[in-house]
């Protein structure tokens, strides 16, 4: 093997360093690229002089840098010189400021003091401006109150005066009382002058309202009237002016409507229909009602309290010792008081407006009533006047001239109506009718019922006022029917006082079946051929029952009469029915000879002697009486009364049933007395052959 030559330690380290160097290092690559720009020949001398070449290259670069930075260095030197100059100037300025500060200290102090005084003066100026605004009028406002034509500026100025007046009241609560009094006196002068001027202007405008039938109220006039409400006396003058103007205008319009009619003759004059009382009075009332609505609307536009703007003093808003609840209560009380006062003013104005038409209207209605209209027209007039009396009272108030006139005329019409009824009743009472052969009601009953039904129809169809109250109808029923009932009673008494009826019995012309098919009213009002009763008293009772039923039956369908008077008629019919049945039963028992014996049979005391031992109730006498009774019951002699003259079928049946029931009850008393051992009848079965149940069966009860 060959021997290996060892390298020198220094060379070995360098070689190792070269071998360990990374050739891909960016810094190495950049250095090599830079080296390649000036290292062109790769020769041994060039490699030996590489260090010196690189150092020369570095020296050249530094020399170039020094040459390039020489201009910047010179500029920096100039800047340094200028900075030094500025520092010297600042030192001079600081010295000057220190000198000025020492010399101007007094001026600054004076300026601060003047600034504070300016702020105080500005505040005082604002206070003075507010005072002038709240306590003084401007020249424009004074001119508007005194000289300019009345317009919105006037009301703004007047409102400002009222505000100032209220503020003065607040000022009086402070220590500036003298100023407050002087300002209040000054504002009072302005205010009174403005209100007097406003009152004259409103009166002038109100006079113009009487020139036209349907005037239009301007907004300016509304504002003026609202403002005048703060002065009740002046407001009253203006309200009276409105009332007087509209009073005259309404009177002219009413007379024109009566005599000339509308424009061009349409609508026609009201007096054209003077021959027709109902239409004549109705047209006048309708015209007055329409006029009341229009006049009321006009007056409300001017004087309606709800439309009043609160222009009162603003001092009302200030109260240091009053709680909010007390303020609310006081405001509510004040509003209610003002509302009542305004309503009184409205009523006064409307009353004055319609006062003039009361007399011509009253005279014409009285002429109608004096012309003696018939009963129906009188009743319709009374109802019409009552309706309008309620209606106008609701709109105008009860204590007014027009309402008093209407109520007075209503009373007069009602009096006329009842006087006609009274005369009619007196005429009937002077000539009472005779009882007909068939005991039917007289024609006066039919006429009276027909008239009453017509009056009821009118009453049911009458106009109802807003209060919903209809006039009472019971007095009308009593005034019409009481005389009719009286003449029927007089006819009954006259017929009863006569001798026996000599007319013979007539056969009924219609069968009971046909009679039952007729209505109750037809059965009452239609005369039928019936046989007369056997006694005047019975016939009289049937006659009065027929008359009362003829009155009662048609009234049952009408609620206005079915409450009181119909019940009264029913009680009278029941009373006469009971009396009739009692008389018939007594007559039958008398015919059988049992009437005078019934008290003996009814005597059940222990001390009474045996009936068989008495002559009146001996078996022989009693046998004859019962034989007659059985013959009457069984129809061998004659039939029981059937009350054929009674015109209501159900009453006829009821009367027959009551007679049969009374006879059955009487026979039951006799039967029990005969079977009673203490009466001593030896063969009671031979006397009382039929038990009470059998008698009831025979009688059909």
Structural features, described:
One of its GO terms (biological process) is intra-Golgi vesicle-mediated transport. Its main location: Golgi. Residues 319-335 have a biased composition (Low complexity). Residues 35-147 form the Conserved oligomeric complex COG6 N-terminal domain. It is a peripheral membrane protein. The protein has 701 residues and is mainly α. Helix content is 72%, strand content 0%. The chain is built from 25 helices and no strands. The chain has helices at residues 9-20, 26-38, 44-48, 50-135, 139-146, 152-172, 177-209, 219-228, 232-259, 277-303, 324-370, 375-396, 401-430, 443-460, 474-497, 512-517, 520-525, 536-555, 559-562, 565-592, 598-602, 619-634, 649-675, 684-687, 692-699. Helix 15 (474-497) packs antiparallel against helix 18 and helix 18 packs antiparallel against helix 20. The longest helix has 86 residues, at 50-135. The protein is elongated and about 205 Å long. The chain starts with 8 loop residues before the first helix and ends with a helix. The model is unreliable at 307-328 and 499-534 (pLDDT under 50).
In short:
The protein has 701 residues and is an all-alpha fold. It contains 25 helices and no strands.
Considering the chains and any ligands shown, give keywords for the structure.
about 0% strand; about 700 residues; 25 helices; transport; mainly alpha; single chain
Which percent range describes the beta-strand content? under 5%
Shape: elongated
How many helices does DSSP assign? Answer: 25
Helix content: over 70%
Structural class: mainly alpha
Secondary-structure element series: HHHHHHHHHHHHHHHHHHHHHHHHH
